[in-house]
Every structure is written in C-alpha cells, then in structure tokens.
Amino acid sequence: MPFTFPRCEIVPVPDFQAAFRIDGSERLRWHFGPDYPRPFLFPLIGPSGTTLTRMGHPGDPGHDHHRSIWFAHEKVLGINFWSDLTTARIRQKKWLCYKDGTDEAVMAASLGWYDGHDPKELLDQELVVAVRPGAEGETLVEIQSTFRPMAESLEFGKTNFGFLAVRVAKHIAAHFGGGTLTNSEGATGEPAIFGKPAKWVDYSGPTPKGGTEGITFFDHPSNPTHPTKWHVREDGWMGASACFDEPRTTTKKSPLVLRYLLHAHAGSASADRAGITLKEFAARPRFEVVKATAKHLTWDVRRVESTKDTKDTKM
Question: Is 50 exceeded by the pLDDT of residue 311?
Fold first, then answer.
C-alpha cells in the first residue's frame, strides 16, 4: 500500500524536545531535558502564527518557573514541586508512544516526581498530550494526567498552586498588554475570577499581526472538582486549582486522573464557541495507554469509552 502522509504528526527533535505539527507547521513543542526542574510545553502558536504563551514573568525574575504551559504542585507530602528554589524535580523517565494521525497527533510519556533529597520516586505521572486542528488555523491541545503513587497512597495538600498552569504571552496579559480575562460565568478580570468556580477561563488580547487571539482553558466534567476554582492573575497567567479548597489523595487502586483542554483561538472570548467546545470535549473518551500488539511498537495509546474507568493498564 502507498504511504499516506498524516495531517497531524509529532516529531522528536534534538535537545530533548518533540514538535507537534499540523499540515507541516509546528503548533506546539514539548521540552523534557535535564536543564529545567520540570518539563513544559512552549510555544503554543495562535492562528496568525504568533506564540500565545511565554517563558517567565514579564517583570519579575522570581517567577521564572512559569514556563509557558507546565505541571507542578506546591504541596506533595509537604514538598514544594512548584518553585524552582527547592530540590524537588519532575523528570521524563521515558516516552511511551508518538502517534500521528489524520485527526490528531498524540504523545504519551511517563514522568517521575522526586524529592531531590531522596532518589526514590514518589509518584508517576502518565501524561498524554493530543494536538488537533481547529477551524482556520486554530489549535486544540488535550492534556490528560494520571497520577500513580509509589506507595499505596499519596496526598496533594490544600493549595491554589497546581496542577496545570498557563503563562500567556505579554501582549495578551491584562496588565502588560491589552488582554482580558473572562470565565464561563460571564465574569471578567482577576478580582471577579480568582478563586471562583468556572467551567473555563479565557485570556485573549491583541496580536502583533493585528486582530485578537487567545487561549480558552477548559476543565473536564469528569474532574473531581468540576467546575474547578481558578488561580488567575492580571499579569498573565491562569491555572486550574484542583486542591483549592482541600487536600486530594491519589492511590494505586484509584489513581487521580485530570483532563484539561486548551483552545488557541482567533477573536475574543466567546461563550457560545466555548460552550460548543466544552460539549465536544466532555463527549470525547479519555485516553488509555496499553501494551502494543502491532509490530515494532512497545506501547499504544487509545481512547476508551468510559471516562470513569481508571483501571491501571500500564505496567
């Protein structure tokens, strides 16, 4: 059979990176090298070709841990995995699957969480990132994390710092640029959105090439705190806070699974568009990483119909 070039692909590149491409153009890049305390995704490209995320705070070097799109948590058994000033580290142990396709490109990887004072791994984060095309150059990034402790259970402490956060580009931040924060409840601005439950939060603003673009950050209905509370700032970042009100425990038997979606879109925030996107996201089955049956593959990633099934299928 003739080879068919996939529309969506993920391509490993030098220096511990992997590029997500649609129609040959890069939309997002994964960074997992040892030079950083934890992996991250940068940049997320908007429809005009301009990045919608940035590395670090525009005015405060104390926030260099804000690396575009990243995973962290402030209180894991009392250990701070949020700051760069601690010895805690998140490392990619191995990539499990790179999967190209007509509709989406998918990466599965295994990340280890380590204290730094003790070489023993505390936690495995099975990460799945899927990138698919939206309308007219828009991009959808689905992110699923399954947290499996090495012990029988592990507690994530009460905090508004964690698990997934997004540092937006300077030009779409409310304070440093011309951006606006909006949520699913119709509120705008940091004071009205911080700490409030919402199905989604959006940061949109002007782009250098003219027009408006932004990122809508969705909380999946299967997440345990949906609609979650949000940590947002006028200086340009937003995070879904699954432990905002109370600690949360993950166990070997019932691991914590969190699903989020980022929509890099044209135009300002739109409640109608976001409602349609959330409905589609809610109906999309979750991912499952399994031993591959095809030749020359070790692992495969597939979607399963039940979003409640958290059976541990990965060895």
Answer: no
Residue type, 297: L
pLDDT in tens, 126-140: 999 999 999 999 999
Q: Which of 128, 161, 137, 109 is nearest to 52 (CA)?
A: 137
Phi, psi for residue 299 in degrees, rounded to 5? -125, 155
CA-nearest of 131, 63, 121 to 92 is 121
For the four alpha carbons of 77, 82, 88 and 91, in that order, the dihedral sign comes to positive
Is residue 166 a contact partner of residue 183, using CB atoms and an 8 Å limit? no
pTM confidence score: 0.96
pLDDT at 199: 98
- Give the lowest-confidence range in 111-120, 210-219, 257-266: 111-120
Each domain of the chain, given as residue ranges in start order, spans: 35-304
Q: Mean pLDDT score of the chain, rounded to an integer?
A: 95
Mean pLDDT of 146-163: 97
- Cα separation, 227 vs 97, whole angstroms: 31
What is the three-state SS of the chain?
CCCCCCCEEEEEECCCEEEEEECCEEEEEEECCCCCCCCEECCCECCCCCECECECCCCCHHHCCCECEEEEECCECCECCCCCCCCCEEEEEEEEEEECECCCEEEEEEEEEECCCCCCEEEEEEEEEEEEECHHHCEEEEEEEEEEECCCEEEECCCCCEEEEEEECHHHCCCCCCCEEEECCCCECHHHHCCCECCEEEEEEECCCCCEEEEEEEECCCCCCCCCEEEEECCCEEEEECCCCCCEEEECCCCEEEEEEEEEEECCCCHHHHHHHHHHHHHCCEEEEEECCCCCCCEEEEEECCCCCCCCCCC
Mean local confidence (pLDDT), 26-30: 98
Q: What integer pLDDT is reported at residue 301 of this predicted model?
A: 97
* Residues contacting residue 295 through CB under 8 Å, at least 6 positions apart: none
